[in-house]
Amino acid sequence: MELFVCSSNYQLLNAIIIVKENKIDADLIIMRESIWNDCNLDILITEGIFKEIYKWTDLLENLSDEKIKKNIHRICVQIKKIFTYINKQKIWKSLPNKQKQYDKIHISYVDSVTLWIYAYFKRKGAALSLFEDGTYSYGCLSYKRTRLRRTLEYILYKGYGIDECTQMYVKHPEKVKLGDNKDVRLIRFSQNIDSQIITNVIFPLYRTNISFISKFKKPVIIFDQNFELNEVKKIQINIARRTVDVFGDENVLVKMHPSSRNVNYGESISALKEKFPFELVMAYEDVHKKILISIFSTASMSPKLDYDQEPYVIYTYKLYGNLFSIGDIYLNQIEELKNSYADKQKIAVPNSMDEFIHVLKEFKDEIE
User: Fold this and answer.
1) In 10 A of CB 1, how many CB atoms?
2) DSSP of 87-109, one letter per residue?
């Protein structure tokens, strides 16, 4: 028996595909409240995808940086994290499936919450497996952690976290950077989802149907990202409004992040709040002439990576100043994406709002 740990709809989608393709006997544990509340998870039991589904959302909800609205909230989160680390045994007691024993623990994103789960079941003999979480998965194994961080991981989790990974499920094994983890087994899974699974499992899971795809006909799609910091929200909303000024509200769609809270783009901007992963839209919709806008979203890389389509892409992280920083791994991925395009001018990273508007107007001329 194996366990898949999911905190996003995209992770859940990939877990379903992997379990079906590889005929894995697996349980599922959900880490995020919005998935538990909004998705029809019962369908995954009735269709025989997972044996048992557990909810363990308190830890992620309490420790997530996503709720930070002001700097004082950041301090509170850090204090919570310290008390959490001190009370490790108390954390483990709240695990809903603590009585179970697993051969493998499959996680997508390596953080304190997923490592708590792995550390617990590792004591019972479980091995660590990773599965794709977008562009992060292709560079995470090569990320160099400081000696201090590795020491802290050992103290907290009685191990070295990601360095203990034995295998990884990814759509494109040839693109994974292994770094020093040369012994990790890379297992390919399909980016093309069986139509029967989509009809019988995926649509019911997200409480939608094929007509939902038609909402993505608009030429400009903005990917909202789940940051609670008020200053970040204001900039995201301003970017959407400036985009509508150039294209008109009938041509712009904001795809809300499944975990976004308390953000209002206003009545003049069409915002889609359904939890359906954009990666599934690409199975039906040609995005070659669309414009995808985000701070930095895996979804904007997926068209090229999975379907060899080359939409126009604008990354806006530089418009947030010190409010948002992006690591070297992700900067390299943007450069790799750009180099993979036949027309490299279709990838833009504007330095200012004026430059952003200029890029919008240029791209508008090209798609019309």
Assistant:
1) 14
2) THHHHHHT-TTTT---SEEEESS
